[in-house]
């Protein structure tokens, strides 16, 4: 028997001379009383020494796992066994198993062997000749430290510890922040007690105190960056009337110090929350997707570790955190609690009170499975969590809608739940009430024109009368489009602009600027006149070169007027990129943002830049001037309007521009990148407008290749957000915009299409778009952004739902549904099957093809094109719903300009595609239904398309004719030949596009595909056909094209009389 002995210096192998002593001796230590006895029992064979500590650590870690290291394998191979049945004594049974499997050496490990190892360790100095006690002690110290670090490094509980500590600290910070804010309000309340009622928000309250300090400073303080105008005015008024006591400067200094500490703690809490979120997504992604990062971390903290949480059954997970309530209920024999920490999960919060218990039970069961996958699974993805969350959301929707049936009891009975309906009456604002006129609305009766004429007649420096006239004019035009129309017709605008440039009276300039600002908020016709009289240049001069440019009030007025102008469709966009006094206006506008903290200036400048970005050249120019960094910084603005405008600017500047999108994706602010900030803006606590705008930005970055389709911010945030915003309970305009963005996001990626379709509600929600009816109670001031019909960039649409024409917005909803269905069903057969089976979808498509709205027709065609890839399912479906009739009508009746119009569908990039191309694609897909198009008009139209200048039209025209001639009657072939003509065939064969040449040869091949047909056609056009084939074979064409020509010759040779044309042709 051989003995393997493990030391910190290396591996030693001994030969046991007398095996019987192991079994007979009751006390083995007597055989090792002295070195002489030990050497009689054991003979030293070999010692394999470690080269360094790293090699020793590698071998030790392998031994801990019961595995065979390279060093040990090398040592055992040097042993020469006397017999195949020779045994090897080892200390670890797992190691013995590994040696048996790898080296086929029989091993033994018993309690007697453990005693033998202890005995050898006591006499190791005498048993191993090469033994050095100093080297052994040094190796033991280094190896113990190395193994300790290794165990700590690979401890499964260490990351859980970080999560537990982080969530505990987060809870402590929340408590401390509440205490500090409450202390601050009580402390400062002695001086200004009314402020806490005027400004209820804690953060805003702290910023207000820091900005104002003593309440006597309120009248001089600028609250524009912190409070709205109304609230700021109220604060200033109450500061003068406050009942608070006076405090010393030293007291105020301590209050300021406390406020700054609160702000620092809030900033650190935000960083800690982001850190916890990232940790949870890395360690427990499935659990995080189901219950959220905070709830998931608290569950792990309560259980002790993720592994402990995975060991708990679902019933324990459900009431984890409610142990006191559970034992109290058991003790008092009352009902046990239905939920613990899991109550704070989003799915529980969004459910009805009656369903919270049921949802907590279902969520706990899924969370228990998610914990086990996260703790014990090999993968690191969150697919299970996403799938289970979609399932739970679908289940919740079914429960809330009462579509769940009960199996137990008296048969199947429909579950009944009372739905809450808000029935409040919404009052509409009447803009006409703003007019200050009493009686007649005629401006001339007010005497305004007379006052201006009198002012001109008197001395030019008589600015008092001009000021009075300007004030009267301002009061008239504000809030009344009719009065604006009268002012413009009277021709007062040029005189106003002249006064604005010549006068030195700041008050007069501000009044005239207010008048212009009010006029720009009129109709598009009003704005066009304002632009024509040169108001834009005057306003720009006021901002850049005028001595009034340091007047903040005037700058705000001019910026508001320019914002209204540039948000119109007639805006002079080129002005933004032209130089003014040697400096581009873009630079001047950016300088205003950098030099001012006013949110009003920020919002105006951002909107001007956003609406001036209308092509790739504008995008690159703005990026060069650093607009991306400016917009990224403003995303963190505390003002909602500035954030929303910044999102719009980022979407404008990144749309279909890879270079700019790459810059935007790498831009950072506050230690976070732009995509990370956008991800946070899609949280549930944000408004729907902000969520949809952030999702649009993420989508544009992805489509411009700045983000990959597998990015977690797309799969786990943007895509679920868009699907959620398509639901019925969301505002109608949000649903339409979300469907458009969803269509654009999923258009080209199959995996995104599959992920989106996992949500059971998405297809049903989109189908509900066709049933949309406007409701007055749905009116909202939501600001949406949509794409124009004549450019590939966005314009701003600001309208309440109730004020949009019913028919127009109904068309928008249909278009959005068609586009989303087209993108979702582009590549996957199962998704297309679900879409096709949607109730009344084909009827809506047929209706859309016949609609009077061009956008709706094109959207329906795009949807039909996508669904037409399911050939087996749609052959009969197309026949049953008479899809071919509106398609043929579109081919026959389409106006000529439709061939050239580039119709931009939001989030669907239809570059160089038109109605005819899509119709022809549909023809290509269904060869069996060609008979629907076999009338003279359709054939002539297709032949006419082959003569068009656009290569796409020529290609699809020939392609359609080729399909129509496949296995068709001789009369049809002759009709096509007669309409097309051999001269046009020769022109197509001489086309520079090889695809057109190939399809033309396919057309000839189909024409010559039947013996009787071959002989008849060759008898009429034999020479021309042979000349065409020879021309292709002798020309410099590809092998594929020549192969098609040879197939035509083979068809000709198959004819009875036609083969003579080949025999008689010397070429």
TrEMBL record:
Subcellular location(s) per record: Nucleus, Nucleolus
One of the GO BP terms on file: ribosome biogenesis
One Pfam match: NOP5NT
PROSITE patterns: NOP (PS51358)
GO cellular component, as recorded: box C/D methylation guide snoRNP complex; small-subunit processome
Location (main, coarse): nucleus
Positions of the Nop domain: 283-401
Keywords: Nucleus, Ribosome biogenesis
Top-level taxon: Eukaryota
Gene Ontology MF term list: snoRNA binding
Quaternary structure (record): Core component of box C/D small nucleolar ribonucleoprotein (snoRNP) particles; the core proteins SNU13, NOP56, NOP58 and FBL or FBLL1 assemble stepwise onto the snoRNA. Interacts with NOLC1/Nopp140. Interacts with NOPCHAP1, NUFIP1, RUVBL1 and RUVBL2; NOPCHAP1 bridges the association of NOP58 with RUVBL1:RUVBL2 and NUFIP1. Interacts with PIH1D1. Part of the small subunit (SSU) processome, composed of more than 70 proteins and the RNA chaperone small nucleolar RNA (snoRNA) U3.
Function (record text): Required for the biogenesis of box C/D snoRNAs such as U3, U8 and U14 snoRNAs. Part of the small subunit (SSU) processome, first precursor of the small eukaryotic ribosomal subunit. During the assembly of the SSU processome in the nucleolus, many ribosome biogenesis factors, an RNA chaperone and ribosomal proteins associate with the nascent pre-rRNA and work in concert to generate RNA folding, modifications, rearrangements and cleavage as well as targeted degradation of pre-ribosomal RNA by the RNA exosome.
Record-linked PANTHER family: NUCLEOLAR PROTEIN 5 NUCLEOLAR PROTEIN NOP5 NOP58, NUCLEOLAR PROTEIN 58
Protein name, UniProt field: Nucleolar protein 58
Organism: Leptotrombidium deliense
